[in-house]
Amino acid sequence: MPYFPHTPKEIEEMLSFLGKKSIEELFEDIPDEIKKRAKENFKLPPPISEIEIYKYIEEISNKNEGKDYLLFMGAGVYNHYIPPLVKKIISYPTFYTSYTPYQPEISQGILQAMFEYQSLICDLTGMEVANASLYEAGSGTAEASLMAYRINGRREILISQGVHPEYKEVLKTYLNALDLIYKEIPINERGETDINFLEKEISENTTCFIIQNPNFFGVIESRLNEISEIVHKNDSIFIYIFYPIALGILKPPSDYNADIAVAEGQCLGTPISFGGPYLGILATKYKFIRQIPGRLVGETKDIEGKRGFVLTLQTREQHIRRAKATSNICSNEALTALSAVVYLALLGKKGIKRIAELCFDRAHYAKRKILEEIKNVELTYPSYFFNEFVLKFPKPAYEIFNKLKEKKILAGIPLEKFFPDRKKELLLSFTEMNIKKEIDILVDNLREALK
Amino acid sequence: MKDIKLLSELSDEEKSSIFLPNDIEFYPEKELPEELLRKEIPLPQLTEVEVTRHFTNLSLRNFGVDIGFYPLGSCTMKYNPKITEELANLPGFTKIHPYTPEDLCQGCLQIIYELEKLLCTISGMDRFTFQPSAGAHGELTALLIMKAYLRDKGENRNIVLVPDSAHGTNPASASMAGFTTIEIPSDERGLINPNILRKYMNENTAVLMLTNPNTLGLFEKDILEISKIVHENGALLYYDGANLNGIMGYARPGDMGFDAVHLNLHKTFSTPHGGGGPGAGPVGVKKYLIPYLPKPLVDFDGEKYYLNYNIPKSIGRVRSFYGNFLVLIKAYIYIRLLGDEGLRKTTEMAVLNANYLKEKLKDIFYLPYPSLCKHEFVLSGKKQKEKGVKVLDIAKRILDFGIHPPTIYFPLIVEEALMIEPTETEDKKTLDYFIEVMEKINREIEEDIEKVKNSPFTTSVRRLDEAYAVKNLKVKWE
Question: How many CB atoms neighbour CB A155 within 10 A?
């Protein structure tokens, strides 16, 4: 087999050096009863060759027919263009076959890249410090809330109803473990967080308020300054979930005095890949740096005074602080963070703005075309949006979705999937990958399906 | 070696980005009120050539398994087969949106379903969740599952026991799960002693978390008795799968009495470590814990695979979507390529390598636990310390020989610890070279101690000042 380089002669030499007659003798320390059970039950399909597995996996991948469909699904996961350089660089063997840079002198590559990642995230968000990645936005939201809890010790987490339903579910799981309280602030008829409700609910027990902008329904929150003020007047922490690409045109979280900014970083150079691996982005104010979960890279110098990079403030982390660590996170998403830094470096300020404009343009083009050309369709929320919006039909959205599916179009996500009583609504998403011709096809088929 | 400039130092406003379309009709400036719009994005501006060279040069200053020996204890830095990378990147996987209707992503669901069956056989557990994205995430998930199970039985137990040799993630995960951690001392063998354990068990004990082989690389021989003690007390037993590479085909966590496990696919099952991730830490449980698994699970109705959300007692989600899917494909391919025969041989060669190195190196370094080891072992540099050299110095000197140093200062119960895990990837020649290097460094301590203390010499930067980084915190460019 290819992954064991030992020759039979070497094995023999090594065993004889150890004074063992057989490999089995190396397992004398395992009780016979356990070995016997393993012997009986450790039965897998026999080994197969590379050629066979290649064909088999290719065949399985072809069952994923969705790969050839026109895609208008988003909801936190977006099919953006990935410049080929991104994949090239994350495929460099010295990056992808390395591990956590515990030995900085031979890990300057990934350490500098992570330092640059932290810097670029700060540039993009306006925040003062970013960590070197979390798993994805759901657990990232949960980690941000626990961070807020460490900061002020209050036990009630408020969250806008407009946050992604799966992030909310993850948050509930994490809060439940510590008996912290979870409360939702509803959104109003514009699809924006209900400020009056927030003002009523917020109290001296409120740890933080979590908002997502644009929110799950695609709506841009237009009263963020007021919301931020309410939260800060109450000495609570303001957690802001952002969409990194949208920051190419929208004000960054720092402009709203966000205390912790969290995001799904998949959109920055990582394929949609059936849900993972993705990238949890977390950035905050400098004053909270000691409460940050996960890895942090800092600049330093070597004994000759030369610039270098190391993991820093490690006393926050589990391998040192153990039960009192800021988080249990160890392995993170370094390689997808590397994708993000290459992506951002390649696009730069001009590129990110253009990508954002293209997403905005495609969605607004689609909206106008749909509203102009199709009767009986309306927008659920008459508000500002970036690249997603919710449509309301006179009949079940799944019916329409399924009709378009037959035409090889994945026309958004019926909201019923998340909210069983919202049967007639559909969340449509657009990126720069949706050229106008595709949008025309979508609209034609929507019109047809609604006839 | 020359400094590699930061991206911000290379930036020039006049440079253009990659080529993008400009057929824009609806401009944000026209459609949105000004107060929502950003004025300035302070990102650097570079060309594709510069970005390419920048990261290519950075990559030359990094060490990976593809360069050389990487015996980083407890991390299982084995070779990552290239075919797994290629196949995981097929468009049939990378182009699938997580909300794709089930009939259009049957392939993804099938991979998860089949991988679950394989892992059940390997570990002796009954079902797996793939949401956990790393080992620590798996620990947390499993603790939440076990907590839910205990609460469901009306038990309010709140203590998690971990050995003093445990990974730091164990107590950290216990805290996040709302438990209090108590450490159990290892005995003179480096093992959990049933007699000591008994003293720690009481009506508040919820879970004992164990790594077996433990972080000293030793098999917990008394595991069946330990399991009995734990279960008779009404508590549960958790398996930290970081060290599964030492026992495949010889012992299954499920057969040893573990109620829940996590497996590190990025360790035992060869998916690349990616400079710190992504990994995957699927959690396997015995039957009675299945009702509490995160949702959804992947099931098969005889005709098609589907996502099963009907798990009323589920702890909920621990992340969005279904896990680090591309990592799962790689592990699946690895297991299918090797089969049971190959996985058993993996363990055998890993254990042979570790014992060979241990017996060769014990004359140079103090070996605190001189018994048969599994996939790794721990030496102590205390003799060397008496001569004025820390184990950190030794690690730095190893860098000059093109080898990644072992894990140092862990586990905490060994003074000046050097934790060495060669994995099955290395042949005798590589191990002999490592032994030579260690002998040479040991001689240098006698003959030229400053050389060891001032090392490394051949790396892109010399020894870095970590204390300076903390005192003068700089975590982004200015």
Answer: 14
